[in-house]
Amino acid sequence: MKPKMYRRDLVTKDDIWNAVIATISEYDYPTRNQPADEAFLAFQYYSELESGGHEILMNWFSGHIEEVGVTSFLDALVGSLEAIGAYDYAAIEKNYGQEMWQKFKALENGEVKEGEFYAVVEQADWEYHQLDGRIAELLETYFVDVHMELIDVIQD
């Protein structure tokens, strides 16, 4: 069931940004609702990369990745990033996602040294940061576009 909000509370892009984040924060991913899943994954990606990079992303989603498989997870993540127009970010995940996960698991199992894992993570993080935070603008635009699919907006 979608939350209900009044139009008067969703006037600015910031209002919509906050409302969508509050809404998707309550979801149990996956929701089986395409815009909700895309918004959730793209926002979690943005949040984790901004707070600690790809290492944090791997940690945050590790249980889910183990459950669905890295290919399925990366397909969903790349699809979400492409859905919001973040093609450069999607390319980073296409280029490094599989290798990062393999190194993450190998490090966890004591099969590689930390340096092997961090070499891949640091390169992916560097490429992410070269994009100068454009993902925030893309997310905001996407949230504005789909907020009525995620929230029942009551006209005042």
TrEMBL record:
Q: At the top level of its lineage, which domain of life is listed?
A: Bacteria
Q: What is this protein called?
A: DUF4375 domain-containing protein
